[in-house]
Write a structure and sequence with these properties.
This protein is of the alpha+beta class and 97 residues long. The protein has two helices and four strands, in the order E-H-E-E-H-E. The strands form two sheets. The chain has a two-stranded antiparallel sheet. Strands 2-3 form a two-stranded antiparallel ribbon. The structure holds iron/sulfur cluster (2 copies). One iron/sulfur cluster binds next to helix 2.
Length: 97
């Protein structure tokens, strides 16, 4: 689904799209489904916002400085953000149970 590693990638390379925001639905706060959690290494992050675009839950928001912030109340741990990050700056870490 991505543009491929090594290619010039960024928010401006993608067509306009509709973005959603997380909210409590019939199944509540879906972050409780998560087995592993995405953790952003901000030292590597270039703020390209591809994770923000690709997150199927819309649970990544943008800080004032464009830094991506993950809302763990709704993140299901699918790992798509980690897969699409061109800088490998998102690592999936197992949740402790
Ligand atoms: S975490 Fe990765 S995909 Fe998300 S803004 Fe930073 S560099 Fe881009
Ligand atoms: S793991 Fe999935 S649901 Fe969680 S922030 Fe990344 S893309 Fe969104």
């Amino acid at each position: 689904m991505g543009l491929g590693r090594g290619a010039s990638r960024g928010l401006r390379d993608l067509p306009p799209t509709i973005l959603s925001s997380p909210k409590v639905g019939s199944v509540g706060r879906t972050g409780s489904w998560r087995l592993s959690r995405p953790v952003i290494n901000y030292d590597r992050c270039t703020k390209c916002l591809l994770c923000w675009i690709y997150c199927p839950e819309g649970c990544i928001s943008r800080a004032e400085d464009e830094k991506p912030i993950i809302d763990y109340d709704y993140c299901k741990g699918c790992g798509i953000c980690a897969k699409e990050c061109p800088m490998d700056s998102i690592l999936m870490e197992m949740e402790e149970v």
